[in-house]
Design goal:
Blueprint (H helix, E strand, L loop, with lengths): L1 H26 L2 H20 L11 H14 L1
Helix pairs in contact: 1-2, 2-3
Amino acid sequence: MDFFLVGIVYWLLIGASVLLFVWGLWKKSWKGFLWSGIALALPTISLYVGGAEGWFRLAGLLPLLLWVFAYYTKK
């Protein structure tokens, strides 16, 4: 049962990140990009801890990319 709850939280964070990203694009809001990166950081960190190899390691760049979008949108 615990693994099921972890999976729900994992996918909810990914879904929230996508929704916040779309909201950030629509409103051109740096806060949307920032919170999208924060919501996506935990699932990508869990990929590293889980031992992701190969191209899955590039998923760790997505939160950084979202934070860069937030920085340039705020400027």
